[in-house]
Design brief:
CATH architecture of the largest domain: 3-Layer(aba) Sandwich
Strand order of the largest sheet: 3-2-1-4-5-6
CATH superfamily of the largest domain: NAD(P)-binding Rossmann-like Domain
Number of helices: 10
Distance between the termini: 16 Å
Structural class: alpha/beta
Helix content: 25-40%
Shape: globular
Strand content: 15-25%
Number of strands: 12
Radius of gyration: 19 Å
Number of domains: 2
């Protein structure tokens, strides 16, 4: 079966986990991993697996643009601002794993079919990927006036890029809660928990619905349906309890266990981002391959 060539820009935790997942794809062919530290674990693994390992950053890739049609940017929000411009000029599709928000927001469980023609897709944040589906699940039954999410991840699973992007995380996730989740107003909080042993990723969603529109039965059903949709590409995603209803407030508790592809299973924040990235890229690839057959 024909495959579409892809590259990973960034050889840290996210990039290395992506490398492992992409090796299992039926429609994506990983060709190269791009970094700036030739001794990084990601580039070392890439060389061992037979991929082209570029240690001169995006400039090195742009000297060999034929290596890939789709590029995952797993660097940082600030770096992506430059990368987005250069990759657009090079005619590449980009899946932005940072909270730079240069392109439209996509959460596979919510708006997968939209923005397939965009040259730059933004995957918001790990907290956004985990919680926005639940905000939307409530909103499609009862209009959400305000939604607040708290994403708690193990500090061990937060790499340098995640730590550098805290401000962008809160701003971009808040926007995603509104633009994709459907809430009229959104707020996001991230907590890096230093507990030992490391905790699994846990997220809490608080949603206030419009007065007089609460339908507990339908909202519960909608939430459980959405849980299954997310689980179709993130198997470790699950509700910790039944939704809790109090007046016009709905509280949802979520847990995300990672697949353990690169970092241990407590790194659900890593897994939900990379799984979402692969899901979107595969849809891109299927569309591209279908068009070639027309």
């Amino acid at each position: 079966m024909a495959k579409v060539k892809v590259a990973i820009l960034g050889s840290g935790n996210i990039g290395t986990d992506l490398m492992i997942k992409l090796g299992r794809s039926d429609v994506l062919e990983l060709t190269t991993v791009i970094g700036i530290d030739s001794e990084s674990d990601g580039l070392r693994r890439a060389r061992e697996l037979g991929y082209v390992a570029i240690d001169t950053g995006i400039d090195g890739f742009l000297e060999r643009p034929e290596l890939a049609d789709i590029v995952f940017d797993a660097t940082s929000a600030k770096a992506h601002i430059r990368h987005a411009k250069l990759l657009k000029e090079a005619g590449k599709k980009v899946i932005d794993m940072t909270p730079a928000a240069r392109g439209p927001f996509v959460v596979p469980a919510v708006n997968m079919g939209k923005n397939m023609e965009a040259d730059n897709i933004n995957l918001i944040t790990c907290g956004g990927q985990a919680t926005i589906p639940m905000v939307q699940a409530v909103n499609r039954v009862s209009p959400v006036e305000y939604a607040e999410i708290v994403a708690t991840i193990s500090s061990r699973s937060a790499g340098p890029g995640t730590r550098a992007n805290i401000d962008e995380f809160t701003e971009t996730t808040s926007r995603g809660i509104q633009e994709v989740g459907g809430a009229k107003k959104g707020k996001a909080i991230i907590i890096l928990n230093p507990a030992e042993p490391p905790i699994l990723m846990r997220d809490t969603v608080y949603a206030l619905v419009e007065e007089g529109t609460m339908d507990e039965k339908k909202i519960s059903e909608s939430i459980k349906e959405m849980e299954k949709v997310v689980q179709s590409y993130v198997p470790g995603y699950r509700l910790r309890t039944e939704p809790i209803f109090d007046g016009n407030k709905v509280t949802i508790f979520i847990e995300v266990e990672g697949a353990g592809d690169y970092l241990p299973k407590y790194s659900g924040n890593l897994d939900i981002m990379t799984a979402a990235g692969v899901k979107v890229a595969e849809e891109f690839a299927k569309n591209q391959l279908a068009q070639q057959l027309v």
